[in-house]
């Protein structure tokens, strides 16, 4: 199975994120480093670092974890509006140079407490138009010198970012990961993203979206290498299928008892992609082979809305079927995070890395 396999670091100062152990060290450098070093030791390629107002700054966390590891690749979530393009391009180029080319960036344009950042809301069309301009300009700043640009949202004059990025094989610069299922988001993905991340939809839903984005890229004259596709999903793996389902059902029962406390970090107006996930349980609690939709009924949000459940062999088989659709990037997780980094690194990851 070809592809890249990343984990997830919640980056949250509130203990107990999505069913994690309520550790008083949550969000500390020691705790984050322990997770990053465990990810590296287990053979994962790196980790998505969660973002949102009220969490520690992802760029700072990513820089610290890169400094405390040797192979770990932070997938750092950032927001246009919080960053200006030239400021971000310079900071990212510096971190990429100092880390030996280990950075990746997830560009986030979904709803958040934008006023708390000092940003303005605007409607979805404006927000994603700004994101598209941001991504295009940053890529120019990484690959060209003496850039002058006057756009609707951003301007630079005679801008040359230092240090210049060092190519690593065919990789000229860090890749942009992106998510979103609205029409405005898909136009950005089709033209500007390197990797489009999907949450845990059914295989028919993922196949439909992949085909749509490919067609949209052709229609909009994408001038970048072909868009890649990724899956961000919870994987609940146990020694046997029976044990996995018993644990999954027990977790959901506890979510029902507590009203999903600690699980739902996508409250407020529901994004198009989130609504697609929440609607899945109307088709059944278990879809495809082992896609568990019940968490979404009881507070699960984002990548915690649906789970792949089973033995390592069963979950690997399900992920292989996503790979057959064209998914090449996998961002997996389960809680407690540290325990599951090791468990799934030992039992699931070798099955995924097998030719």
SSE arrangement, N to C: EHEHEHEHHEEEHEHEHHEEEHEHH
Shape summary? globular
**Residue share in helix:** 40-55%
Terminal-residue CA separation:
5 Å
How many alpha or pi helices? 12
Number of strands: 13
Q: What is the radius of gyration computed over CA atoms, rounded to a whole number of angstroms?
A: 20 Å
- Looking across the biggest beta sheet, what order are the strands in? 1-2-3-4-7-8-9-13
Which stretches of 5+ consecutive residues score pLDDT under 50? none
Average residue pLDDT: 92
Category from helices, strands and their pairing: alpha/beta
For the sheet with most strands, the description reads: 8 strands, parallel, barrel
């Amino acid at each position: 199975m070809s592809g890249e396999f990343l984990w997830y670091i919640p980056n949250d100062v509130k203990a107990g994120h999505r069913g994690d152990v309520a550790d008083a060290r949550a969000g500390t450098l020691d705790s984050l480093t322990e997770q990053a070093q465990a990810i590296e030791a287990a053979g994962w390629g790196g980790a998505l670092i969660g973002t949102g107002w009220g969490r520690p700054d992802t760029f700072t966390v990513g820089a610290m974890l890169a400094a405390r590891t040797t192979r770990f690749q932070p997938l750092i979530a950032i927001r246009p509006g919080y960053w200006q393009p030239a400021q971000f391009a310079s900071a990212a180029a510096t971190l990429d140079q100092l880390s030996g080319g280990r950075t990746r960036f997830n560009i986030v344009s979904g709803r958040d407490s934008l006023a708390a950042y000092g940003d303005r809301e605007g409607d979805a069309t404006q927000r994603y138009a700004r994101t598209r301009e941001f991504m295009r300009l940053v890529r120019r700043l990484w690959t060209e010198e003496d850039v002058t640009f006057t756009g609707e949202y951003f301007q630079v004059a005679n801008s040359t970012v230092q240090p210049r990025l060092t190519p690593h094989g065919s990789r000229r610069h860090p890749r942009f990961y992106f998510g979103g299922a609205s029409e405005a988001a898909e136009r950005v993905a089709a033209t500007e993203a390197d990797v489009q991340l999907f949450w845990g939809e059914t295989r028919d839903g993922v196949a439909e979206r992949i085909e749509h984005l490919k067609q949209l890229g052709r229609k909009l004259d994408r001038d970048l290498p072909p868009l890649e596709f990724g899956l961000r999903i919870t994987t609940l793996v146990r020694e046997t299928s029976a044990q996995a389902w018993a644990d999954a059902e027990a977790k959901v029962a506890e979510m029902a008892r507590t009203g999903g406390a600690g699980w739902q970090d996508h409250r407020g107006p529901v994004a198009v992609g989130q609504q697609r996930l929440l609607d899945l349980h109307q088709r059944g609690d278990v879809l495809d082979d082992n896609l568990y939709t019940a968490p979404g009924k009881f507070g699960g949000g984002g990548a915690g809305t649906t789970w792949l459940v089973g033995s390592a062999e069963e979950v690997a088989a399900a992920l292989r079927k996503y790979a057959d659709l064209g998914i090449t990037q996998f961002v997996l997780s389960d809680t407690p995070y540290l325990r599951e980094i090791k468990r799934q690194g030992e039992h699931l990851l070798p099955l995924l890395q097998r030719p």
